[in-house]
Hints:
5-stranded parallel sheet, 171 residues, alpha/beta
Amino acid sequence: MRRPNILLTGTPGVGKTTLGKELASRSGMTYINVGDMAKEGELYEGFDEEYDCPILDEDRVIDELEERMSEGGVIVDYHGCDFFPERWFHIVFVLRTENSFLYDRLESRGYKGKKLQDNIQCEIFQTLYEEAMLSYREEIVHQLPSNTPEDLEKNLDQIMQWIEQWMKDNN
């Protein structure tokens, strides 16, 4: 039975991992956090001193994911999306969070200074939504609010309905 591939993207701290893990639990699909996968496989090409974080080797990430993506039924979680092949995803969800919530979430993760401010600006200017709109067909890109536990439940219900409909239409 064919199952769709889903991309969850958005600024760090918007709730991609929380949504992705719960979605995988409810749907039986495979959840992949690209940041965790990169850490485990050391899929880096350097270190960014300014942001105090490793630099992802995008080509190695693609190589690592290619076979799993062709099988379907994968939920991918990452804060960037322009390097993934368009053919991989049936739908893209960009999570959006109001700045007051996002600031607190990032601060609690230890973000400060330029890294904190740049991520807040990224959300203000809809950087990742625009990246998704430029990288994928407009009709498969959807924004979801991700501020409260109620938003999480509503998003889970909405995505589960979409998965069920996709499976009826494609099997």
